[in-house]
Amino acid sequence: MKRIVNLFSILITTSCFTLSASGQHATSENAASLFMEAQFAKAKSLSGEAMQADRKDALAYAIHARTLMVDNDLSTAQVELLEAIRLSPGNGVYYAFQAACYQFQNNPAQAAKINEKALQLLASPKTALEYYARGIVEESMKKEDAALADYSKSIELNSRLALSYVKRGKIYAKRKLDDIGEYSKAIAINPAYGGAYFTRANSYYDKQQYDPAIADYSKVILLDPKDVDAYFNRGVMYKKKGMYDPALADYARVIELSPKDASIYGNRGNIYLLTEKPDQAFNDYSKAIELDPNSALYRVSRASVYLRWEQWDAAFNDYNKAIQLDPKNADAYLERGNIYLNQKQQPELAFADFNKVVEINPNYSNGYLNMGVVHHNKQQYAQAITDYTKAIETDPANQLAYFNRADAYESIGNIKQANIDRKKYADLGGKLQASGGKTRQEIFPQGTFDAKLAEAALGRGLSRIIGKACTKRDGLIFPAAGVKVMLFPVTPYLEEWYALRDKKESKKTGVYMSTEANKYAIEAITNSDGRFSFEGLKPGKYFIQLIHSFNQLKTAKVYTGSYTAQNGPVMQTTNYYYNQDYTVAREQRLERFVEIKEDGDTRKVTMANGLIKLCDF
To answer: Of 403, 593, 587, 406, which is closest to residue 497 (Cα–Cα)?
Structure first.
């Protein structure tokens, strides 16, 4: 959206004039009075007549120059101001005009130099207009308190100085005072003062009072049907109210009046996107880029259309270009990070982009949310919870932050907090239905797995671990043949997992290490009698685990019937059985911590469920 601008900022911020004590023609004095009331066209006409009548009338040149500045004819205005100063070199008001003209010509250094001269000459103002002129110089020099006092003094001396009311209103707006009243006073002085309507409309916009803003912009358009900024800003107001058709009509008018204005295509593209017209939005964003190729904003906007079309590479390229053009564009980093995460499967690069978002804007809630997603996906739940919490602190209405944090809390076994977050998600409008509980809960350690530490622990050494694994059931020994054996370096994360498992594991709760932690392990396969070995280890502490799954052959007597016979007075019954073999699936988890103290050592270990002599070396 194009930023709301003040079309009449030139004439409001610097317009001033003065009446000399004597020697000025009545025509130029009348022109000055009209200018004071913001009747710029009439002031321009009268001051032009005064210039023709008397080529030595400094005031006529100054007033005419100021009206040219309103019309943005800055080069001609500068020539006429130089003539006014030549004719009256001691007049500080004319220097104030000249400084303003340099400012509008993007020459702040020269403007500052001239302002110093103007301030010296206006050290002891006497008239309302001299106070006004000193006020605009002081405001340009960031001396706001002094400027406000001078604007007020000018109004005290001349209640019809409409320009001072507008200037004072702008300072009031910064201080949260009644600026609307000041603009209204200026309008009361001159009901045709378009600049006052425009400024008042901008203030209504800032206060989110869109209807009176629309009314004031409409008044500006009535006074000047070719006022591009009034059409533009009124279109913005219509968009704010969801009135897209009149907004599009205003934007179309702006394009008629100013077809080379990139921002209008960008804004119209936004409406097309909101109204599900991505093709038209794409065309407008592309036109905006053509007209302003150095704008990052339009690249980000066009990329959003590519995202809708699932053209990830095209969107990625636009985000890259946007970041190149504006390295502080947080939106571009956020969306590029999403592509890294979801399409390119590069979470580290995604995290770097999300981290850049919050570096640029520490209050960007979704930056923290997405950082949390990266940690969440890596099963780093404590860090994910920290990020989600920060997202909620910066935006208490961030639904997804509550939803994701609930899942993270559940993953570390904090069901109570998970339920609180899910309720908050629902309270904020999230769709959450009641569901059956899980028959088995899966929880993980809160700590963060240190991949670099694990990798270093698995570095090459001269030591070895050899072992034998078996399970004893019903007095029988079962070698762990052809079983995968895992060796993990002992890290703080593994120790936390082991302690958590010891405390929480049950039939209803399983305790697991993260997927990443499971990657940092060495695998071996046992031979037929359960033997295995790990070679080339460094000194350190290791954890060995295997799951021994096997079938145990068992035999049961199966009843087939009976025979009963009379043997004298005794009735005898004989039962008949046969033996039936069957298998029982068994599973035994075998684990052990092993420490290698010296490089070159060999450790022999037995992996068994208890003391099984036949399983030893």
So the answer is: 593
